[in-house]
Amino acid sequence: MIIGILNSGGDCPGINAVIEGYVSAAYRRGWRVIGFHDGFEGLLPVAGGRRYEILTPMKTHQIRSQGGTMLGTTNTGNFKINTNKLGRRSIDPEILAKAKKTISALGLEALAVVGGSGSARTASLLAEEGLPVISIPKTINNDLCPDTDYTFGFQSAVSVVSESIDRIRTTANAHQRMMVVEVMGDLSGWIALHSGIATAADVVLIPEIEFELQNVIDCIKARKAAGQREIIVVVAEGAKLDGKLITVLNKDNGEERLGGIGNRLSRILEEETGIETRYCVLGHTQRGGSPCAFDRIAGLRFGVEAVKLIEERQFGTALILNGPNVDTVPIEDAVRSLRLVDPESQIVATARDLGIIFGDRPAKELMSDHKKETPEGKKPARKACKSKEAK
């Protein structure tokens, strides 16, 4: 049996682990694996060469610890999805015909597609054309597949962000500054929320919880007045400022993308609070580097389970993490809606009890005694209990 694998869209820690698990499980069954380069573009013929390679356990051994992807990737190209007036999605028929020809010429009996929402939708359209496709969703944003617990890549991103904020806090404390840290996430706040909890951030601003600037300002002033040296604000790139998304212009293609709220917010907070403020955009450091142990294991499991699905002829499905198990859902269900933070969820409630401010409530309702100190800078002494003999 000959099967293929490709990854498309943005890179993500754990993709190489998926490839290693996929190849290992396939070869244990006596199958061959073809890896396509640069996403779906690898399915198209090129003059004077090819855009794929035979993958073997020797080539993929221990790549689970490497970041990026050995196959390369792209989030542009010929497989653009077009939508007509009725909402029907499609891919250029000529491009589809070329891809089918490649698949037929190679004798490919199945194709695993590792990618985000756009890649999963492309995989779904290929499945509708009768191609034997399995989808393996990935994103550091954790906003794919409403039924999954986590997408692989997310835990690695949170680890990188948390370590970065820990480092930022030391310099903020030394200079008694406020630091505004802008993190990725697109229109979800998972990275900001989890890293904010992990690093004891004072303020976490996410797209799912609408915030009032004055509430944030009042909270920061109160904590500074209580003797706190540094203030840490974590903001998701998709959080809205005064009800609007903040974007920057991509000079390469003229398109706007999310970003810039950290810069804008830091200037406002410094002006309103009088606290010296700096901002830091962590950017693509969140997507790069070696995956954490969780994402290595998750990636390997997804690769192995994809081979099992192919063996069982369960095409048109996507893999999800459900508790301790890897389960499946139809590809369409995996991309039917974004997986967003529930403002009423337990983890948000936990963050609130830990003293994290989301900016949706007045500061006077939120100040907790454990942050306050006496005017001398010392914590109030605990009253001694009188014994029966003393009485």
Report the top-level CATH class of the largest domain.
Alpha Beta
CATH fold category name of the largest domain: Rossmann fold
Name the helix and strand elements from N-terminus to C-terminus, one letter apiece: EHEEHEEHEHEHEHEHEEEEEHEHEEHH
Largest pleated sheet: 7 strands, mixed
Find the structural class using helix and strand composition: alpha/beta
β-strand number:
17
* Spatial arrangement of strands, main beta sheet: 3-2-1-6-7-16-17
Note the beta-strand portion: 15-25%
Q: Helix proportion of residues, in percent?
A: 25-40%
What is the CATH architecture term of the largest domain? Answer: 3-Layer(aba) Sandwich
Question: What's the number of domains?
Answer: 2
Average pLDDT over all residues:
91
Strand-helix topology:
Layout: E1 2-7, H1 15-28, E2 32-36, E3 52-55, H2 57-60, E4 81-83, E5 89-91, H3 93-106, E6 110-115, H4 117-128, E7 133-137, H5 154-175, E8 178-183, H6 190-198, E9 203-205, H7 213-225, E10 231-236, E11 240-241, E12 244-245, E13 247-249, E14 256-258, H8 261-273, E15 277-281, H9 293-311, E16 317-322, E17 325-330, H10 331-334, H11 346-353
Parallel strand pairs: 1-2, 1-6, 6-7, 7-16, 8-10, 8-15, 9-10
Antiparallel strand pairs: 2-3, 4-5, 11-12, 13-14, 16-17
In short:
With 391 residues, the protein is an alpha/beta fold. 34% of the residues lie in helices and 19% in strands. Helix 1 packs parallel to helix 9 (293-311) and helix 5 packs across helix 6 (190-198).
